[in-house]
Amino acid sequence: MVGAHATQRLIETVTGRSTILFRPPYNADSRPYDPTEIIPIKLAQNLGYLTVTENIDPEDWLKPGVEVMLQRVKQERRTGGNIILLHDGGGDRSQTLAALPAIIDYLQDRGDAIVSLGEMLEESPDYLMPPLRTMKRK
User: Please, which contacts does 50-54 make with residues 24 or more away whose CB atoms are closer than 8 Å?
Assistant: First the structure.
């Protein structure tokens, strides 16, 4: 998984932190359909990553409009906890940003708690994204 190592180094360079989190690419993260979609998950596991998937994908990357994204969240929401996939890169994210307040209002009106992944897993941010250790020069 050469790409994973390159991504890991980029995260470390930009944030000063590492990560143990992995989201498989494309639709493999929610419902893998064939072995080629499972291979990245197994490789990441072998490298010590924790795979995190989503169960709600409003497909914001298609730019379907704010109302469509909100409707998809409403339709796919289940009781017992959800992880919503929204993109923050890959071009114009204005629809995603516009949909976010409506999605948050809807979830809060239903009484859902909006928590970080760390809170959901009962893990500290330093566990999920540990600070880099600096090497002391002699």
Answer: 50/20, 50/21, 50/22, 50/128, 51/22, 51/23, 51/24, 52/21, 52/22, 52/23, 52/83, 52/117, 53/23, 53/24, 53/29, 53/83, 54/23, 54/29, 54/30, 54/83, 54/84, 54/85
Distance between CA 85 and CA 69 in Å, rounded?
Answer: 11
CB atoms within 10 A of CB 115: 10
Tokens of 49: 């990553």
Q: How many CB atoms lie within 10 A of CB 103?
A: 23
- pTM value is 0.78
Residue-wise pLDDT for 48-90, tens only, equals 999 998 889 999 999 999 999 999 999 999 888 899 999 988 7
Q: What was the pLDDT predicted at 6?
A: 85
